[in-house]
Amino acid sequence: MFDQDEDRNRENEGVRWDRGQVLSQMFAEPVWAVRNLVSLLDSECSVPFISRYRREKINEIEPDKLRRMSLANEELKGVVKKATAVLVKLEKEEKLTPEIQAALESAQSMDEIEEIFAPLKSASKKSFAERARQNGLEALVGEIERNVEVVDFAAFVKKEEKDVDSEKKVKKSVVHLLAEKFKLDGEIVSHLKALCHELPVLLKCSRAAPKASTADSKKEPSRGDKEHGRGQDSDREAMKFEKKLEKALNCVAEECVSFVGVDLNVADELLLQRVSGLGPAKAKKILEWRRQKGPFINRQQLRLVKDIGAKTFEQCAGFIKINPETIVPNQGQNTAAEPVEPAQKTAKKPRAKKQKTEAYALDPLDQTHVHPESYDVCRRLIARMKLDVNSVGKRDFIQQVSQYRKEHRLEQLADALETEVAVVRSLFEFLQQRTDFDYRSAFQMPLFRRDIRRAEDLRVGDLLTGQVENVTDFGAFVDCGVSITGLIHTSKMRLAGRQVDLEIGDRVVVKVERVDVGRQRLAVSLSQRCQPVP
Fold it and tell me: Taking a C-beta distance cutoff of 8 angstroms, is the pair 181, 115 a contact?
């Protein structure tokens, strides 16, 4: 599946844990699935791509949870990077001890690293803890650890050393040594938590130590300095939160656009840059292509756009669609007669010409959510069902695919098609969707308008949401949440100039054409089909 051992070895440089294990515990998902997820994310796969086309490798984790795991994975990568940088720095400054190294390699958050590193930060050439150790205060720490009733701090005062020329400074230096020891020894921390009621002074000192170690001044900071410092801390935390929020919102926007899909020939720059694998720069390149070369005829043409490499194509191809109705040549252009020059010309002209012709062929599968990597298997499946690929998305095609799915086991089909069961399952899902299928329709569209409850409130031109409850030869009856059932006459059952076949259970948006409360009649026309028949 993936070279997991190699991946874990690579990511574990500098730490004693792997992201897959930690994320597995955080989100209660199987380790194998999370390690696969980490490998996919590290190979620059997007959340929408993984969720739709690699879901069998991640135990079918739902998109929302997958997004949270992706963000947590980024934070853990930052922890690994920070821990490695601190280890290198301390080693260079000859401050790295086995205890410090073990603590840093075990830290799983930025806060843990900062707590370990804070007492070791140099005010000059040596850290506060190092200077305290140099002044012989480790013996004093030993007395405190043995819980000696009376500790003689004055005995360690050295007038010739500015760090310990008073009893107060001796105590302050001891705090740095204690803080360092507490943060590096997990057993001590646990012991202190259990006995905190017996050792309140030590616990208080250990918590205050990071603040004391970040400044090297002869006098205590003023009230204004303290308030200023707290303000800076608050600002930093606010900035961190804003960055996290912005990243999360960008992820959600990318998921929404990708899961719905975009028409490659009509989507604007803002929409394109939200598609999985693209972004602002590549969205601009696509728009430049459309202006210079005309509309795209199929998904494969994306490969000819500058900066759209194999990885980008893999990530975005399943989320962009080619709608034949929107393939409108620019003024003065003829897409069929003027094929686009490929990025690299082949040596033999006849062969190059053949490649251009293939690149310009319309492909019905480009209207679906089937990924190009599965086109070959998909065509063989369609042929096995004795169906025409050009009928993809049509009512009869969907019904026959649905019936075939009920009569055959996925495992047998996967063996016959020489592919994975998960691929066959996905293909059946995609082939049972209309070409205008919208993933949002099943959960985002309210069944009825909340502001209209009575037929008396209706006005001509109002848009209503509802569900088809009966279909006849002359039209479809729709429950719109008011006292009168609406009728869509067959003449009003059209979208984009084409006749639409509705079925019981379809969710729709309708426009009020005529209302007669006295005779209990409501005539409506179809404005949008929200949920295609599965």
Answer: no
